[in-house]
Amino acid sequence: MNEPKQLFIQENQTFVGEMETGKIQVIVLDGNVGTAYQIDVPEHGKTIIQTAKGHFARVDHEIGFKIS
Fold it and tell me: What average pLDDT does this structure show over 30-38?
């Protein structure tokens, strides 16, 4: 997993991000600060988005492996 990538917010409160083929990604919008982040997530597991004092603070990944 990579560090969250901050997306540029335009004056009209829109943003542009690129989708990468073969990846699962999540976009986090923080309306308190006016920021947006694009985050890679694992194929199998949980992604936990944490806030602190009303702001986006951290991302935790809980990754597992399915045994069949």
Answer: 90
54 or 1: which carries more pLDDT confidence?
A: 54
Q: DSSP secondary-structure letter at 13?
A: S
Spatial CB neighbours of 18, under 8 Å, sequence gap ≥ 6 = none
21 three-class SS: coil
Instruction: Enumerate the domain spans of the chain.
Output: 5-63
User: What is the separation, in whole angstroms, between the first and last Cα of the chain?
Assistant: 24
DSSP 25-62: EEEEEETTTTEEEEEEE-SSEEEEEEEETTEEEEEEEE
